[in-house]
Amino acid sequence: MTKIYPDAAAALDGLLFDGMTISAGGFGLCGIPERLIDAIVASGVKDLTVASNNAGIDGEGLGKLLRTRQIRKMISSYVGENKEFERQYLAGELEVEFCPQGTLAERLRAGGAGIPGFYTKTGVGTLVAEGKETKDFDGETYVLERGIRSDLAIVKGWKADESGNLIFNKTARNFNHPAATSGKVCVAEVEEIVPVGSIDPDHVHLPSIYVKRLFLGAPYDKKIEFRTTRARETA
Fold first, then answer.
1. Regarding the domain with residue range 4-116+146-216, which homologous superfamily does it belong to in the CATH classification?
2. I want to staple 115 with a disulfide (CB 3.0 to 4.6 A). Which of 18, 25, 110, 168 is the partner?
3. How far is it, in rounded angstroms, from Cα 77 to Cα 80?
4. Is the pTM here over 0.90, yes or no?
């Protein structure tokens, strides 16, 4: 049975529903599943809970879903580059669960590993720990964090073989791997699909067992979150 679909809409067919939880790979605009995000926008599905390091920027990445008000709650570690995210949060229009970055990565990884919760020192004594169970180990206090298990994981890969083994491109590996494993179903978009056997097993970042659906999203435009330039020096 093939895992390869013609496009993002086909790959998401039958998977989306109102009120679902989605874990999304990427960091800023690096390694984001942009074709899948566009397809989710077009679907009109609403009341989403999205677990992602951040929500892109205004009008790009998950920022598109914020703009259309399809996200009800964000589980994120960083919101600083998205003014619409900030506005909705401060206006009480968007529920936000702030989570330290490393803790968020581990919550996603734990969910994918079947671990319902774990203790960490990060956040102890701060608002992050408010209302959560704490426990002492060896004289130190730790806070209980829950693993994240989503209905759907959406990720962006660089190269995949036809069975779904994935390679991520450098720093685009970021949150894509833990997000992929945390979903009950993982859908991946990639820049290139090659025959089975073309990828050295030692180079596989995400084994095919995690990837249920796959499609070719290329070509992509490289978007730059911050463009920093300086005046050209005169000869």
1. Glutaconate Coenzyme A-transferase (3.40.1080.10)
2. 110
3. 10
4. yes
